[in-house]
Write a structure and sequence with these properties.
Blueprint (H helix, E strand, L loop, with lengths): L28 H6 L6 E5 L6 E2 L2 E2 L3 H6 L12 E4 L7 H12 L7 E2 L4 E2 L2 E2 L9 H4 L4 E4 L4 H8 L4 E3 H5 L39 E4 L6 H13 L14 E3 L5 E2 L7 E2 L1 H15 L7 E2 L5 H19 L1 H7 L9 E6 L2 H11 L3 E6 L17 E3 L2 H15 L3
Parallel strand pairs: 1-4, 1-15, 4-7, 8-9, 8-10, 10-11, 11-14, 15-16, 16-17
Antiparallel strand pairs: 2-3, 5-6, 12-13
The protein binds magnesium ion.
Magnesium ion binds next to loops.
Amino acid sequence: MRLLSVSRVSQSRTRSSFLTIRAQTSRTFSQLHSNPERSSFGIAFDIDGVILRGRTPIGGSPQALKRLYSECGTMKIPFLFLTNGGGVPESKRAIELSELLDVNILPLQHLSFMSLMQVVQGHYPFKTLVAGYENKLIVAIGKGEPAEVMSDYGFKKVLSMDEYASYFDNIDPLAQYKIWEAKTTFREDRSLLPRYDVLSERVQAAFIVSDPVDWSRDIQVLCDILTSGGLPGQANRHQPPLYFAADDLEYQAAFPSMRLGMGAFRIALEAIFSEIHPLPLEYTSYGKPNSFVFKNAEAILKQLQQLSCDEHDVLHNGDAVNHSFRTLYMIGDNPSVDIKGAQQARSPWLSILTRTGVFRGEINDPEFPADLVVDDVEEAVDYIFRRESTLGNQ
Ligand SMILES: [Mg+2]
């Protein structure tokens, strides 16, 4: 059982209880700003259904985020975005978020002794697999720029599904009925053309980087790859490894009701694969709610904590002193992803559930109850500042 030590909270409340904290007009930001000590708390924000709906900011997110910066514009409270979404490199997403939210989100920066970043997407853990597949042929599936994402991580022999499928005549029997055309701009840059024979080389692994766009083509070609041991049209062989960036069944996009996510695609692929192959589909899913995602977020927040405390010392002296957080807040809209993940990660994580996305309930989620339920992200940040002020932090 996890408790919040604020005066409004019953000391005996259970996880299924909830708080309704009304926004107060008094702000504690000035208190935080006046103290130069490093922050003993950090914040992880989910994006879809918390910060944005589609590309539109929601829940007072720009105002809430601005409170995490000092008056001169430097980051005062360490925070990052922890999303299961993706499809573009983290640095590119940071620039896009900066524009949409009118705050300065750090793109990936490599310093001599650390890497700083503020956007961690579902596919970020794929980076840990580079050593095993660096020079092996892999296929990257999903919206956006899945091959660029993987190249950015260090994979050297990667083709997007659009690119890969284009080598095989008639591999998609429905292609002639599709009114759109897969992007083929990669062909114009001859330096990007593979220097190997795609038609005879086996795919060593498939990565679902982001939400697949053309489900019928992608399921068809994935089944071809996975049943044939990596070479469509060949006889049955052992299935190559398959990796998913996340397993969200649904998520909040611009449409009023939930949209099917990567988990829904996984269920569809798995159901079909099991009908045409004697063995069940083998796969690995990353993203929230896996505990390692929260461990990694904590490590990144510690680096940002050093930056937010004394940027000059960190940048010039590299004194990467390791200070633990008293509290890390996960603000999300999806109980089975954001809240479950924070619960599994345990201390110092506390979970805050907003009503701006997947969760629409009045009280709390019965299966994965959050430590706090609020209307929106602005109310969540306001609560955090008041709680931290009560605790005497900063
Ligand atoms: Mg969400």
